[in-house]
Design goal:
With 125 residues, this protein is of the alpha/beta class. Helix content is 42%, strand content 17%. It has helices at residues 19-24, 36-51, 55-60, 76-89, 103-106, 118-124; strands at 7-9, 15-17, 29-33, 62-66, 95-99. The longest helix has 16 residues, at 36-51.
Length: 125
């Protein structure tokens, strides 16, 4: 599948087009785990949005940059990568909002808001 097709696969394996919904969107929120692979996917998605005439959505986008490790015990190399990702994304979007590490977000599964830490809920506000 080409990134320029603006499609995504649902949890049930259905492939849906994003072209029509994006035509009505005023802003997009892009969740990015603070790792190079997730950042690469986000960059590809933003390039695809620009290539299909949605550069305004990229400029107005908000990136939620989720820490994968607790900051207080994180490896310095990881912290450097997370800072690089934020620095690469900041010039392209309206805001990059750091989301602190939360075990409830680590697996990338469906999020149950009732199990999120107070710090995570505050970051989302």
């Amino acid at each position: 599948m080409s990134w320029h097709e603006l499609k995504y696969e649902t949890e049930k394996g259905q492939c849906l087009s994003l072209t029509r919904p994006l035509g009505h969107a005023e802003q997009v929120v892009i969740p990015v785990a603070a790792g190079r692979d997730s950042a690469t996917v986000a960059q590809k998605m933003m390039r695809s949005l620009v290539a299909t005439g949605h550069e305004d959505l990229v400029r107005r986008a908000v990136v939620l940059l989720h820490d994968l490790e607790p900051a207080e015990s994180a490896d310095p190399g990881y912290l450097h990568v997370a800072q690089e990702i934020a620095a690469d994304l900041e010039p392209q979007v309206a805001a990059v909002i750091p989301i602190p590490f939360d075990p409830a977000l680590k697996e990338g599964a469906r999020i149950d808001p009732t199990v999120l830490s107070e710090a995570t809920r505050t970051a989302y506000r």
